[in-house]
């Protein structure tokens, strides 16, 4: 009991004015409570994401760019209105801007569509800035 009290006191001193998130298991909350730590539960939010097909006769280009600490990348995927995979591409490119990587993904996707004979293309991206630039809005680089 003396050892546990010393551990508890040490933890309380080291965690003064700090909040730590523990996993939501009952055992983890019980252990935290034994040491006199306050736990806060956070609600889990689930978003359901679905792919919406284009109209019959159209093709959909899904594109994305990614920028990390030491590298950037992009990807594009072309599917028809029945969700069938047509062609895709991924690449690595060291660009200083996520918007430029998003544009590269869109550009590569458009080239894929052109080379496969697609003439009705729906472009979908999570970058509103890149899409605005494609549509001639805003100050594109």
From TrEMBL:
It comes from the Eukaryota. GO terms for molecular function: nucleic acid binding; RNA-DNA hybrid ribonuclease activity. InterPro entries: RNase_H-like (IPR053151), RNase_H-like_dom_plant (IPR044730), RNaseH-like_sf (IPR012337), RNaseH_domain (IPR002156), RNaseH_sf (IPR036397). It holds the Pfam family RVT_3. PANTHER family: OS05G0353850 PROTEIN, POLYNUCLEOTIDYL TRANSFERASE, RIBONUCLEASE H-LIKE SUPERFAMILY PROTEIN. It comes from Acorus gramineus. Residues 62-137 form the RNase H type-1 domain. This is RNase H type-1 domain-containing protein.
């Amino acid at each position: 009991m003396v050892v546990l009290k010393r551990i508890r006191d040490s933890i309380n001193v080291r965690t003064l004015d700090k909040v730590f998130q523990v996993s939501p298991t009952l055992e983890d909350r019980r252990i935290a409570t034994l040491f006199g730590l306050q736990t806060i539960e956070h609600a889990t939010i689930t978003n359901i994401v679905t792919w919406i097909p284009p109209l019959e006769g159209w093709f959909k280009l899904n594109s994305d760019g990614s920028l990390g600490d030491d590298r950037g990348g992009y990807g594009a995927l072309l599917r028809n209105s029945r969700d069938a995979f047509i062609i895709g591409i991924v690449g690595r490119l060291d660009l200083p801007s996520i918007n430029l990587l998003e544009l590269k993904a869109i550009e590569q996707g458009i080239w894929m569509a052109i080379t496969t004979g697609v003439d009705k293309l729906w472009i979908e991206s999570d970058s509103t800035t890149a899409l605005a630039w494609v549509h001639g809005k805003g100050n594109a680089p």
